[in-house]
Design goal:
The longest helix has 26 residues. The protein is built from 20 helices and 2 strands. It has 439 residues and is mainly alpha-helical.
């Protein structure tokens, strides 16, 4: 019976995400991962220069590229038989399904806390649509893949420690910094310490693959070629993650407001203490680690990209608590949906892409000098918050341009932005996206 409920939750979540499916690549980072996947197929090598001229190696982990390999093979076979390119949509379906699977795993974790199945299913779906998780169903970032892997690790740690380790190794191969999350989960998730050794041994294939490919690309087993710079003052990053007008985790996932109270209540229940400890440890370690990272907000991204994993695990604690179904939970869930819907309709990156391509200007209040709007404006200035900008873009589009004069962001473009310059980022609603879908 539980397996049928798991499948039903997966199906419901997938249908929701599929309704907003964009069907096209978004991230420049993933372009390198796709190129590596093609190199692995075509020349069985790491050289991506045939697909990205001027670049020999990607600096990202091989794990996500390996996951894309079968999708690219199927797309090529389909193109050979029909003459139609479906590479973009097929590969992006990976992230749609990953998000749906993540919601189903969230359901299982909430159920493990003794929550009745209907409430657990409802809580999992709410997390899936009222948090930062929703837009990442149409963004090809490895953080979402890693988050689903960590969820699976927690669920499998006691009964299938070897499989847990293999999944952890794939997470490390996808993102080398996932080592921290894998280690924390391996230490906290198992009820018995006897699982520690098989989990650790299970991670070896992914870890060794990571070291080998690192050495082949950079000459160092520990460095993929990605620049390592922890130059941001930690208080700047912490303020950005917690309190900023444009990147706060509470802004992009309003249900996080209930986390501390929910965690405190459940800490006193022995059966739930491990889940609370796990969520808090993951969030704190991510906050401290990425607050000093040179690009702490993970831009270009929707919200605080690097905290996606920790946020989801904290929301599980909220949904497993007696807040589930309360007036506060419902109100914050509705607010979350209202924040995420414009992002999935307009595209989570749309406002940032306009910032790069159109270079809108603002007037510096301290000097009265005109200057370009920057990423720091998006991060810290309420007028240019990514949430506000995206809502304004949606209203501008559906009102056929009548909103422009009331928006600091929209009125900053020169030449003026027109409704036809932006698109509804849903494959089924705009014909231009059908042409982009084969990218």
């Amino acid at each position: 019976m539980e397996s049928k409920r798991f499948a039903a939750v997966t199906g419901v979540a997938f249908l929701i995400y599929f309704a907003f499916f964009g069907g096209h690549y978004v991230s420049g980072d993933n372009a390198q991962r796709i190129a590596w996947a093609k190199a692995l197929i075509d020349c069985h090598c790491n050289d991506i220069s045939a697909y990205m001229p001027g670049m020999q190696f990607t600096k990202y982990g091989i794990g996500a590229s390996l996951i894309h390999v079968p999708f690219i093979v199927v797309a090529r076979l389909f193109a050979r038989m029909t003459g139609l390119s479906i590479e973009g949509p097929l590969n992006m379906l990976l992230y749609t399904f990953n998000s749906a699977l993540g919601v189903a795993l969230i359901y299982l974790l909430i159920r493990r806390q003794g929550v009745e199945w209907r409430h657990a299913a409802g809580g999992a779906v709410v997390i899936g649509v009222a948090s930062v998780w929703f837009p990442y169903s149409k963004l090809e970032y490895s953080e979402a893949l890693v988050a689903t892997m960590i969820l699976a690790m927690y669920l499998l740690a006691d009964d299938h420690p070897w499989l847990t380790g293999l999944i952890g190794g794939l997470a490390i191969a996808s993102r080398q910094d996932a080592l921290i999350l894998v280690a924390l989960t391996a230490a906290i998730a198992p009820a018995s310490r006897r699982s520690w050794v098989p989990i650790a041994l299970g991670t070896l294939p992914g870890s060794i693959l990571t070291m080998v490919t690192n050495f082949q690309r950079s000459g160092s087993m520990l460095n993929s070629g990605y620049e390592v710079d922890f130059g941001t003052p930690i208080l700047t990053g912490l303020y950005g993650f917690l309190l900023s007008a444009g990147k706060s985790l509470f802004l992009f996932s309003p249900l996080m407001v209930l986390y501390v109270a929910a965690a405190r209540r459940q800490w006193h229940e022995r059966a739930r203490r491990r889940l609370v400890l796990w969520s808090a440890a993951l969030l704190v370690i991510q906050l401290l680690f990425y607050s000093k990272w040179w690009d702490w907000s993970g831009d270009d991204a929707w919200g605080p990209r690097f905290l996606v994993t920790g946020t989801i695990f904290c929301l599980i604690v909220v949904a497993a608590s007696d807040y589930l179904g309360s007036g506060r939970f419902i109100a914050l869930a509705i607010l979350g949906v209202l924040i995420e819907l414009p992002a999935v309709l307009m595209g989570p990156h749309n406002s940032l892409m306009l910032l790069h391509s159109r270079q809108p200007m603002t007037t510096d209040l301290s000097t009265s000098v005109r200057r370009p709007i920057t990423l720091d404006d998006i991060r810290f200035d309420p007028k240019y918050s990514q949430v506000i900008d995206t809502i304004e873009l949606l209203l501008f589009k559906v009102s056929n341009g009548r909103l422009e004069g009331s928006s600091s962001f929209l009125s900053s473009f020169d030449p003026p932005l027109r409704p036809d310059d932006i698109e509804i980022d849903v494959l089924w609603l705009h014909p231009n996206l059908h042409r982009r879908a084969g990218n």
